[in-house]
Amino acid sequence: MSGPTGGGGAEPPAGRAVASRAGLLGALLGAGAAAAAIFALRPAQGGGRGGEPVGVLALQPGPGQTRLQPAPAVRHGGRGGAPEGGRNDPNRVGHGGDGRGRGTDHAERQPASKRIIAGYGFWIFLLSDIIMFAAFFAAYAVLVGETAGGPAGRDLFDLRVTAVETACLLLSSFTCGLASIGVQARNGRWFYGAMAATFVLGAAFIALELREFASMVADGNGPARSAFLSAFFALVGLHGLHVSAGLLWLLTMMAQVFAKGYRADILRRVLCFSLFWHALDIIWVALFTVVYLMGAGA
Amino acid sequence: MLGKLTWSAVPFDQPIVMIASGTVGLVATCALGLIVFKGWVPYLWREWITSVDHKRIGVMYCLLALVMLLRGFSDAILMRSQQALAYRSDGFLPPEHYNQIFSAHGTLMIFFVAMPFVIGLMNFAVPLQLGARDVAFPTLNSVSFWLTATGALLVNISLVVGEFARPGWLPYPPLSELTYSPGVGVDYYLWALQISGVGTLLSGVNLVTTILKIHAPGMTYLRMPMFCWTSLASNLLIVAAFPILTATLAMLLLDRYLGFHFFTNEAGGNVMMFMNLIWAWGHPEVYILILPAFGVFSEVVSTFSQKPLFGYRSMVAATMVICVLAFSVWLHHFFTMGAGGDVNAIFGILSMIIAVPTGVKVFNWLFTMYGGRIVYSSPVLWAVGFMVTFVVGGMTGVLLAVPPADFVLHNSLFLVAHFHNVIIGGVLFGAFAGYSYWFPKAFGFRLHEGLGKAAFWFWITGFYVAFMPLYVLGLMGMTRRMQHYDVAAWRPWLLVAAVGVVLILAGIVTQVAQLVVSIRQRDTLRDEVGDPWNGRSLEWATASPPPAFNFAVLPNVEGEDAYWSIKETARAQHVLRDEPEYDEIEVPRNSATGFVCAFFATIMGFALIWHIWWMVGLGLAGSFATFVVFAWRDRTEYTIPAEEVARIDRANRAARRAALGQLQPAE
Fold this sequence. Notes:
Helix content of chain B: 55-70%
Distance between the termini of chain A: 27 Å
Largest sheet of chain B: 2 strands, antiparallel
Strand order of the largest sheet of chain B: 1-2
Low-confidence stretches of chain A: 1-30, 33-87, 98-109
Oligomer: heterodimer
Largest sheet of chain A: none
Order of helices and strands of chain A: HHHHHHHHH
Structural class of chain B: mainly alpha
Mean pLDDT of chain B: 89
């Protein structure tokens, strides 16, 4: 089990445990990937601006270049759906029906706005971030029992403190939503007020988390104590790091709106910020359940 | 003040290292001196370094890959010559240096050759094929590139300052833990990959958004060229897999820097978790690399057979099936590590299943060529060479997917031969095919055809001479990564493999010569029209090189093979389209954000490796400040007036009209 050359035929019992956890890990990662795929494959709107026919001429290579004449079979099988192409043409195998006509409604659809593109791209980024958390969740699930003689979750977690943390974060999500409404209403008082409230609640969350970490380290239960504590500090700390980065971002967003006003690109960034903040909330719900509730109850 | 960094970090006592790094330093200094002396700095800064144009960034990615290919290949020469000489002797490389070389070779070739090459091709070609003006987030694209360059720079700094990792291209613990690798080598590896990994992830996000959200009117999903589909699959895999790499390497970093116990032998750490996590990224990574190459071959085969791609929809399905299955086979990388017979059986079967969609693709390419009027240009040679070579590599892969066979062959040179067979024969040949296929689009002139063909023949014979002996050696029981050996029967095969490396070297020299000769003869190789191969997709509908805005007027797509159908219509109707109504076009402004951000990332990475904590803070603060400054910009775009658009487009229209003048009527 310990070396990279685990023997042929012999099957240490730990191997099975690892395999089943590997399955769990795979399921988590797979779920993330599937979500990404499903999300990503929704029908898109036509992009770009104009819709005029391209001003391209029929052409052949110039002098001194390889002169390419299309094979006759191709002429009729061209994917543009030349009428004489016909269904019997073997070159059309695997091409959906008559390429023409189909999908013209897409062409008439409005192009995707920058707001949609920015939000969409940020969603994809958030999904990748959630996959990174999934890897840390998987590591935690593998190592949760490896306390190496040290304390387990039920010896360490104080659910009252964690409940307050959770309340802070959930409330901050609510105030973040209020800030989005404020920005849409172009109401400075709402926006700054709600953003400030979000900051205070987020900072309170971080302060409580740091206090919890500090007291654990002071008791000799730091991340180096056992693999369980390593995984705990890494997972919860990663979330805390995200919230801290979010706080920094929040301040710069307030400053940007203050300095530049409700400019379109800044509004897009506010949108991305609120997506980020809500996503951290979702991750915290999973974290609270898997780490604290299940840990304290075990 | 400077953490662990002292003068002893520079290996003055190792002549090979000093000569190699001295040469590199000399060449780099000369190049920089030439650039400054000739007054090219403002041009480079304005047109390339701060460019957010996807075409320029794509070219820079490919350039980075080609330069790193030279560096990685020089490692290959060292390894092959060491093994040719080290029969009953120590050869010329001491073990600790040899270990760094095979680690650096793998790291460079995967992360800084193959990855930038395919990302560069995707960056260059995908927006053009979609009929888009740029990627979704142009400045982010520049940030991605420069972060990748930062990673490459850090790996190369390790040549002179300190050392590189020794545990191999994947740092398996516990060997890579602080106890057994106390030096900075593993830290160089980890930080270089963390920084370039962020760049890769952002590039994946960018391209997924581009492919799904930005395209010309009428470019529905099932009208996209095959390369766009494989790029989509590849970038979905990047978005889904690279966070796992980041997480895994972060855990190893926490182990090494803060005494965590993720993968240690003590306090409940679990080494097998590293294997699972790293290969949960590592196997999708294989498909991240090969899928864009499949896309290039689809484009090349269809264009040069002058036929639509056979089984387009089955090709799309096969691509997406590979995309999903890529996440279900990772355990076959460690069948021998005690998962048990039942688990091994499941992963063995899944690994064989994933060969099926790949087989579908091979048959589709063959049927595309069947009955076509094939032009055997150098891209087609790479494609045909790929089909033969990749099938061999795929078969040995299926063999390795049989767990009992894997117990015999794992960790041997058979495995080394297998993955070189698929990565050189698949990814690299695909990258070279794409390079010669899109080169005229990027620069406005074709590459020299004769030298291109010569390079292909050197490469493919070199490949077979170098790697077929490794299959034999693997079956004879020679394990990988041996610094010396004393089995007489192995020696002849290793000598043959060394000859193969010389042949590949000739191929690379020919490629360099091809580039030089092509630049010198660019006037005779000029592509005036913008469609040198009688192409089928939209990148050939615009000038070579395309203007900053790609298309003066966005094309209206009415079917698959968008540009081909436009040409067909024009031929059938004997009618030329009227000049369109030109409109002004908004183009993103250049930005130094990417370069400056990478500058601070380099400082930060270097400081983290050497534990110079104040410098870490400096790098972090600098990166943050860079983004704030970027956010404060008031004008993010500039407008090209309609007259300017018209002037640029009319020049290309005139060339196309002139080409048309020599065209006989279609029927």
